[in-house]
Amino acid sequence: MARPTNRPSLSHHRARHDTVRHSSRRVGGEFRGVAWLVRHPLFALVPGALVAVAVLLGALPTAIGVGAVVLVVVVWGRLHPPSFDRWAAPALRATWRRWTTYRGRRWSSLLADCGLAQTNHHTGHITAPRVLRVRSATPTLDTLRVRLTRGQDLTLWTGRTEPLADALRAHRVAVARHRPGVLTVVVEREMPFRFPIPAPAIPLSAESVDLGALPIGEDEYGHPLNLGVPGRHIAVAGASGSGKGSLIWSPLRAMGPTIREGLVRVHVIDLKGGAETRRGLPLFHRHATTAAEAIALLTDVRDEMKARQRLMAEKGLRRLDVSPATPLDVVIIDEMAMLTAYGERADVREALRLLAEILTQGRACLTSVLGYVQEPTKDVVDVRDLFTTRICLGVTAASHVDMILGDGARERGALADEIPGGDDHAGIGYVIDQRSRLPIRFRACLVTDAEIDELVARCAPAAPPELRAIDGEAA
Predict the structure, then answer these.
(1) Segments making up each domain of the chain, as ranges
(2) 47 exposed, middle or buried (CB, 10 Å; 0-12, 13-18, 19+)?
(3) Among candidates 296, 261, 294, which has minimal Cα distance to 277?
(4) Handedness of CA 79, 81, 87, 88 (dihedral sign)
(5) For residue 302, how many other CB atoms are within 10 A of its CB?
(6) Is 274 annotated as contributing to ligand binding?
(7) What CATH code would you report for 206-459?
(8) Is 240 marked as a binding-site residue?
(9) Is 280 labelled a binding residue?
(10) Per-residue pLDDT, 15
């Protein structure tokens, strides 16, 4: 017969253990206060410093000193807004928003409502991701570093960006991984581009042109947006009226003197009859307006590329430098779908073969392709994955965003399908930052017909090559 025992049962032992483990009380407020001061020492140091100064110098001199500092800041902001907006305003704005929006119960409750915080059912305490840093580069843009709570990841946050944007009364929220356990969260409060961006100035000389950083617009942080052409192939997607023309003419203006000096040769394929590009005809080395001309142009570019490969092999070179003997060949294809999808089957097949050859081998041989398309679907642009730099202007379908910018780009905040149409928003789009993988909103420069005419007048080659149709007839 089993002997009776006074030991508690296993279930009773677990119940007692759970009762101890899940207390309804929180850590004492005094200890929470000490921990808070350790994380924010300025809240103790600044008042302490003011008290020390008041003890040493007196209350009146201290008050006068504080008032003088405030007065200097106000006068600075009124007297010289550019320097104030660059050096002082971002710090003041970030401090204000950190303590009024991104801290405390308001922030915790907001995240809880969006499904991004955890609530302890025993104490009612909300454990919310903590904001480590706030940067406010412009009045419309905040960049946060957020430490995740245990069990959270990037996928959870990317799935909640739209509710979070609505809760913050923001236009857009973008999220990317900064380091393990920390996210970068971009809060765009309003559409940042209220006015068109002026066309880039034409440099005075070829020596002042940096082909690796051609200014083509401005990003949402107020910084110049630069485009590198050598060693890259660039794909631009955008619906009709989205401003693709700005991304044709802005790079040409920025590199203008190099065209004049023969350091860059521009080959243009425009199968819409040449209407969009004919204004710049004197700038172009070749200009094709039919499928037959386009295939002949691509064949010649491919043959030149092969000749350069042989030259590099003979001289043991890994890359070529831009020079009159080996100029940068830039192939511009306006509306690629006319060439790669909607033409005769034999022409489409040959064009795709030539394009694939150029896109896979041309980067080291100073051959770059700039392709423009309305619908970046695979059946329209079969070679889209071979473009190394991709830009998305306003598009008509959410799926187009990921097709051009890569999987997950829209979830991370590239809402190109929500860009309104019309001239007021032409040229607005997104690129992906290669380091952070964050979508960056930008606006391309607006280039008018008069500015295209100025480019032609100043930068057409002094002795331009005979512009000819590719089949040998005069253009």
Answers:
(1) 41-87, 107-190, 206-459
(2) exposed
(3) 294
(4) positive
(5) 18
(6) no
(7) 3.40.50.300
(8) yes
(9) no
(10) 43
